[in-house]
Design brief:
Number of helices of chain B: 12
Bound molecules: thiamine diphosphate, magnesium ion
Low-confidence stretches of chain A: none
Low-confidence stretches of chain B: none
Oligomer: heterotetramer
Radius of gyration of chain B: 20 Å
Helix content of chain B: 25-40%
Strand content of chain B: 15-25%
Largest interface: B-D, 60 and 60 residues
Strand order of the largest sheet of chain B: 3-2-4-5-7-6-12
Strand content of chain A: 5-15%
Number of helices of chain A: 12
Largest sheet of chain A: 5 strands, parallel
Structural class of chain A: alpha/beta
Structural class of chain B: alpha/beta
Strand order of the largest sheet of chain A: 1-2-3-7-6
Number of strands of chain B: 14
Order of helices and strands of chain A: HHEHHHEHEEEHHEHEHHH
Shape of chain A: globular
């Protein structure tokens, strides 16, 4: 498939922005400047971006505890995100949600979700809205290999098939749910195969390869937009870091950790588009610089933002009460 | 005014709101019935016939039968609510909350707060509560204290057909997630119910009887039992002020406190289990905020700390009876308790 | 497969006992003598008996709201059952459970269950006990077509595969969950196919045919007993009555209701074993008479049993408190 | 006596009971860790290291890692408990109860009653509760009132390492389903903990401090905050009787009532949400059963009726602080409240 230059640049830009964001979040966290639990998306960028590049603000996504990448791929403002992760005023959720609950409904980003298996039913609901209102949009659920075993996820798949909804289930198989390997936790041969058993088209793609994800997502999204119902995509990818920042990762061998670094989807993308001359290394370097600047600015803004006013504690529990 | 059943009143509320706003949908198991069957459509209209007739008027795109999949139902309703619909989801029996509670209490209830005020989740979850039909331990619970405990949820417990209609219309027009609990023993009860739409605001108690001797607070099916007790007591000259707050969250604290300030005595009657229950909640409210006016110990009349038994005689003993309520009122007044 | 005469008689006896039980429960219910909700098993007898004939008291089963047949097939005492359904002293659960909660742990019957999807995780637990204690027994979950869509059921299947447990998932597909047809509610092509996607052997059999169920169950149980792990069996059968007693069944066509009567598994069994001379009609008639007498006695005992003493209300909540 | 952390105390309790009884198993997500991975076994030992080392001693047949599948975990544990094992199942964060509550409250909790006394379900569910680590709305809840509400469950909330060990051993030997709630902010706290096994009976309160002026009741992490408040108040001559009932169900009602009979004043401090919460439960108990002895309104100190916020400053304001507790005590004594 031939992608035009602006699209390629945009793809790279979003992936790089995610990586830059996560690298900086990690550094800030390790300096003790970010509270709570943080799960980094680094290594999985091709998944979020390969899918979300097909989406507009009118399309919905639902995410997980590992949600920064999905947010950025869907167009959320990195400064608002960073302020949120720091727990500051001006954060996307006014500092009340944090890393595990970043959401931006205006961008069609229905929220990170700290409950594994929490988002698939919600995404089915968004798809139900779209179908009921006859809108030509789609709703995408991002779920992990671990989350693929949760009952809520299975139910969501069945209901999406029954109601023939424009929903896409993206299973980011990064090999682990916390410290438990997918080969242990998924009794089936593959997540895609199990999803196919629910009565929807399902494919498995190499998530280190942006283009593979992009194409699989295009087909599934196109099908959903045109009334063809739900699909599943298993995206095999690699988590570059631990489950959360601070995880010693004793459950991974040294060899595996080396392979993770080597199989970096950003490097693979860069090599590919520069090798065949579609982009110059210089174009990409420019993107790198821009992204670094954007994130540096976001960090700066977050550091300097005030904490929420104390009366925020009791606001926004209800619309009215 | 025409007399209608509680069931009919609820059906009318759904009908009127679906007619008024095309974003209102009904979703649940057998809310129409007959999907994929060889016979008629709308074969159920809800397992107890409450949603009967809606699918004929609004079609299967707005009256949506589902598989048996409560997590997906509640989640889909919550997700649809946050993206522009106003779903009325049915949790057939409240006892089933255990297979779908996450979508209610961690998702729908918390969206607005977690997302810093950006979300609106105009979701109504209708569910059936209560004992009295020998439906045994997994189909007879009340569980309203669990919903009441959760910040972000509103909880409605209509005690009669008139309130049911007005409160359900209010719930559907409300922009927050509302748990609407219908008592299964009330569906056949009747009241005068206007044909037109009307709303009853949340957090406004109804004074069922007025009186200066004892304040009695009760919800849902317990209201009628308290009324029966009050009628008996009245014959002995005891004037009960019977308050039906109608919603547990928000709760009309002022109505309760002002009444107790006048009567100095409180009996709370509730069908929920006693520990961390609604009776305790209201008793604690008064013990903290109207203590100075209390002339006697607060009394709580609830079931014992047991599951709901099947055998009809045990179930009857499980539920607060008018006799037990009356005895508690008398005890509060310092009279010798006749029974118990 | 050649079954010996005593086995054939026993199979018929249990099926007939179930039918007789249910016919009488229906009559008693309609006379207003049984409280609560009652779901009849008539029409599905070949499923419970075809499976349970392979089991001893050391094997476990978990059941549903439609549990009378499973109880009887597993050897529960019909008088104790009837007293329970009447809510009387001496009932299997002392009158505190009723039709939807009949259990007899001594018989390996872990309980009817009023939560659809309630029993599969529990049955996985029983299978875990068996595996942990290295016992050569199995645990069988009976679930309906409706219950096959519940998240708890999916989770139970996956966990059974992951832990390689001696669990068998029997899906009694009687065409409906309440008034909703299986073709609507199950998005997949078949329940067995979806179960196979979870990574276990799965077959579909005609549940009107006792012998088909018996053989499929034998294979699955044998596999489980010998460490081969879980299996699924979809048993297609027909519910002769409404979902609960009193259900008008408007969702079923007249033709379908006629077919249901015609496809009676007891009649099919009788025809088959008498046609090929394995049993005499007279043998079966004797069983019919014996079963009718046993149930009449059970009804008589239940009618005349006292209701539970009122202090039973607060007993047996805890072992100690 | 050796000083040990709360985490270590819990680990020791598990270890000693697994050594003692081969029917005790541990099951949950990453209770060992590393299954199906390319690296080491026992890589986690529980997400916060509480079960570390057990798999090395007892093997993967008794320390069972599972997929992310809480309903199946709780159900399997309940089913195993009723067929002869004594499972200790881990619900990593109590906030996850919404995806598995049915197996806990409709199944395990009700077996014995529904089955007429025939079932025994020696199940322990260990779970992590509480705020204070900026884990936000879905990883910081307490939710113990929900478990306490359910007949058939026992609920344990240890406030220190010593109690944690003795109560967990008791829980494992107990024949009923026990919810054992560990506060995530307490894992690093230390106390003197004997190496050998010991049990602490359920329903027996600990008197943390004795005093005649005000009774303060608190559980789990709130006990230390109350102790801090009591220490401050003592300097002003206010003698607080601080009671840690340790289990919410059964509850040592006598200890609380007898204390209030002496002090005439009650402050209940709890980390759970306020509506139908544990503070209300205890306040109601006293308002009903020790009313005559009360000299002042009961005071409850709890978080507000909101989800748990993420931002550290908001979370700090959310939780009852020693200052708020001390102020409530002073108010109960009729003193002018300095802050709030
Ligand atoms: C219901 C629930 N169970 C458990 C957890 C704890 N938990 C958080 S993330 C995680 C692993 C998720 O694995 P996976 O779905 O593969 O996503 P990944 O972390 O690999 O992105 C677990 C077990 C949770 N948050 N929610
Ligand atoms: C969790 C839950 N949801 C819904 C119900 C209500 N209900 C009881 S039986 C039933 C239908 C079950 O269908 P199926 O599993 O096919 O079993 P069948 O009745 O056909 O034997 C439903 C929806 C329930 N008891 N539990
Ligand atoms: Mg993963
Ligand atoms: Mg069925």
């Amino acid at each position: 498939m031939q992608l035009d230059r602006p699209t390629l640049i945009e793809a790279y830009r979003r992936m790089r922005l995610i990586r830059e964001f996560e690298d900086n979040v990690q550094a800030q966290f390790e300096q003790g400047r970010i509270p709570g639990f943080v799960h980094l998306y680094a290594g999985q960028e091709a998944s979020a971006v390969g899918v979300c590049l097909h989406l507009s603000d009118e399309d919905y996504i639902g995410s997980t505890h590992r949600g920064h990448g999905h947010c950025i791929a869907k167009g959320c403002d990195v400064t608002g995100m960073m302020k949120e992760i720091f727990g500051r005023e001006g954060g996307l959720c006014r500092g009340k949600g944090g890393s595990m609950h970043i959401a931006d409904l205006d961008k069609g980003m229905l929220g990170a979700n700290a409950i594994v298996g929490g988002n698939p039913p919600l995404v089915v609901g968004a798809a139900l809205t779209l179908k009921t209102k006859r809108l030509p949009h789609v709703a995408v659920s991002f779920t992990g290999d671990g989350g693929s075993n949760q009952g809520t996820t299975f139910e969501a798949m069945n209901l999406a098939v029954v109601l023939n909804l424009p929903a896409i289930f993206v299973f980011e198989n990064n090999g682990y749910g916390e410290g438990t390997g997918v080969s242990y936790a998924v009794g089936a041969d593959s997540i895609a195969g199990r999803a196919a058993g629910f009565g929807m088209p399902a494919t498995a793609v190499d998530g280190r390869d942006f283009f593979a994800v992009f194409e699989a997502a295009r087909d599934a999204i196109e099908r959903a937009r045109t009334g063809g119902g739900p699909s599943a995509i298993e995206v095999t990818c690699m988590r570059q870091h631990g489950h959360f920042i601070g995880d010693a990762q004793a459950y991974r061998s040294r060899e595996e950790l080396e392979r993770v670094r080597a199989d970096d989807p950003l490097r693979i993308f860069r090599d590919r588009v520069t090798a065949d001359g579609r982009l110059d290394p210089g174009d990409l370097d420019t993107v790198d610089t821009e992204c670094a600047a954007a994130i540096a600015e976001a960090i700066h803004a977050a550091e300097n933002a005030p904490v929420p006013a104390e009366d925020e504690l009791t606001t926004d529990v209800y619309v009215s009460y | 005014m025409p007399r209608k059943t509680y069931r009919q009143a609820i059906n009318e509320a759904l009908d009127s709101e679906m007619a008024r706003d095309e974003n209102v949908i009904v979703i649940g198991e057998d809310v129409a019935g007959g999907a994929g069957g060889s016979g008629e459509d709308d074969a159920y209209g809800g397992v107890l016939g409450v949603t009967k007739g809606l699918v004929g008027k609004y079609g299967r795109t707005r009256v949506i039968d589902t598989p048996i999949t409560e997590s997906a139902i509640m989640g889909a309703a919550a997700g649809a609510a946050s993206t522009g619909l106003r779903p009325v989801a049915e949790l057939m029996f409240v006892d089933f909350l255990g297979v779908c509670f996450d979508q209610i209490f961690n998702q729908a209830a918390k969206f607005r707060y977690m997302f810093g005020g950006k979300a609106r989740t105009p979701l109504v979850i209708r569910s059936m509560i209560g004992a009295g039909l020998s439906a045994a331990a997994q189909h007879s619970q009340a569980l309203h204290p669990i919903f009441t405990h959760i910040p972000g949820l509103k909880v409605v417990m209509p005690s009669n057909a008139y309130d049911a209609k007005g409160l359900l219309i209010q719930a559907i027009r409300d922009d927050d997630p509302v748990i609407f609990l219908e008592h299964k023993a009330l569906y056949e009860t009747q009241a005068e119910v206007p044909d037109e739409a009307y709303t009853i605001p949340f957090g406004e108690a109804e004074f069922v009887t007025e009186g200066d001797d004892v304040t009695v607070v009760a919800f849902s099916a317990m209201v009628a039992r308290c009324k029966a007790a009050a009628d008996t007591l009245e014959k002995d000259g005891i004037e009960v002020e019977l308050i039906d707050p109608r919603t547990t969250s928000p709760l009309d604290e002022d109505a309760i406190l002002e009444s107790v300030e006048r009567t100095g005595r409180l009996v709370v009657v509730d069908e929920g289990s006693p520990r961390c229950g609604l009776a305790a909640d209201i008793a604690a409210l008064v013990a903290c905020k109207a203590f100075a006016h209390l002339k006697a110990p607060i009394a709580m009349v609830t079931p014992p700390h047991t599951p709901v038994p099947f055998a009809p005689n045990l179930e009857a003993a499980y539920l607060p009876s008018a006799e037990r309520i009356a005895a508690a009122v008398r005890a509060t007044l310092g009279e010798t308790v006749p029974a118990e």
